[in-house]
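WARN no homologs supplied; continuing
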Amino acid sequence: MLYVFFWVIARRLNFICRRFGTLCLFHLHRQIGALGHKAYRKSTHTNLYLHQNSHHHPANTQSVLASLIHRAKALCDQDSLPQELEFLTTVFKDNGYSHQQIR
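OK structure emitted
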């Protein structure tokens, strides 16, 4: 009976992740039995965001950094937040942002 319960939950979470696109909550079953969450990206996600050298207003390029960092802090639990911020740092560097802009 417990197996059926977890199977139903897994199917619903899979539906939620498909429905909300490239970034959604991905739930994990931990040792204690509590659910955690981290950012999830589809395998087709290209990690391309508004490039720093593009011809956009500087406020727009800075808002890319601020919005993705805010989203990571809002969605990730304390265990997965450092990994997500490290991933975002790498993605921002690949999109032309300097170290001063990222911090």
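The radius of gyration is 17 Å.
OK
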